Amino acid sequence: MRDIAVFSGSAHPELAAEVCAHLGVPLSPVRVSRFANDCLEVQLQANCRERDVFLVQPLVTPVQENLVELLLMCDAARGASASRVTVVMSHYAYARSDKKDAPRISIGGRLVADLLVASGADRVLALTLHSPQVHGFFSVPVDHLHALRELAEHFRGYDLSNTTVVSPDLGNAKEAAAFARLLGAKVAAGAKQRFADDRVSISSVIGDVADRDVIVLDDEIAKGSTVLELLGRLRELGARSIRVACTHGLFSAGALKRLSDQPDVLEIVCTNTVPIPAEHRTDKLTVLSIAPALAEAMRRIHNGESVSALFDAP
């Protein structure tokens, strides 16, 4: 793969290094500096001319710093005559700002998509966007991966004969149903109402969870308020055991500890789309690597092969 160049921003260099190890290419260096007036400057320290450039940078805390760094990387690659610039964004934080649900409110997901394209991105490789319509915010091709296969492979190690996959809300029910099909399990969903960013109410659970082994599936867990609210309903309905799974384990504001402290939560499973500091991890946490899937998608993009074919085989 002589004509490929992979660069990583500051957000998650460990993921980028693991992706490069699977691709068999070096991770090219990037210099990020800051002027006296607090402005960032980015230099890609490897040749980009007529090369297929991939920029690995999830939008994680500090989101605004990492976003500007990514925009500058795109601009630097375009200015260095890259033949194509692909943004590998394992987590798109602004995807949650996907609709106008209050007067005079911004739709950040679309605005940031426009910024990425304006800065020089020719293509985006994303993973488990918060909602399907975010895909359409980009005016360049988007390859949208998911981590259901990796999560399913992990849970197949358990006895799934009495398992129900539970979505915390109806919006994620379609993904939960797809996950349940991979496991040969039943599916259920919570009836959720959100009052604020961290205040939700789940009035009921639609589906059979009584005396069943439950896997709670969500796309991301930030403060964990939704999952904690759902756990209360599952206890009331008599769930036999509970495991929690998500793609993006953000675990902000001590969410991981709060979930781990729940005695009936046996395991919390996420992928490494975002960095999880070692000091924040608990014995109940299992982190699966998404790097092989990202690397294979990048290889297929580079070779002009089908990326959707990744999901065809069982």
Quickly describe the structure:
The chain contains 8 helices and 15 strands. With about 325 residues, the protein is of the alpha/beta class.
Give an overview of the whole structure.
This protein is α/β, with parallel strands linked by helices and 314 residues long. The chain has helices at 13-23, 63-79, 108-119, 148-155, 173-183, 225-236, 255-260, 291-303, and strands at residues 4-8, 27-28, 30-34, 40-44, 52-56, 84-89, 123-127, 142-145, 163-167, 186-196, 199-206, 213-221, 241-249, 265-271, 285-288. It has a 7-stranded mixed β-sheet with strand order 11-10-9-12-13-14-15. A 6-stranded parallel β-sheet has the order 2-1-5-6-7-8, sandwiched between helices. A two-stranded antiparallel ribbon has the order 3-4. Helix 1 crosses helix 8 and helix 4 (148-155) crosses helix 5 (173-183). The two termini are 28 Å apart.
What is the approximate shape?
globular
Helix content: 25-40%
The biggest beta sheet reads: 7 strands, mixed
Radius of gyration: 20 Å
Strand content: 25-35%
Assembly type: single chain
The order of strands across the largest sheet is 11-10-9-12-13-14-15
Distinct helical segment count:
8
**Low-pLDDT segments, ≥5 res:** none
Order of helices and strands: EHEEEEHEHEEHEHEEEHEHEEH
Structural class: alpha/beta
* Number of distinct beta strands: 15
The whole-number mean of residue pLDDT values reads 94
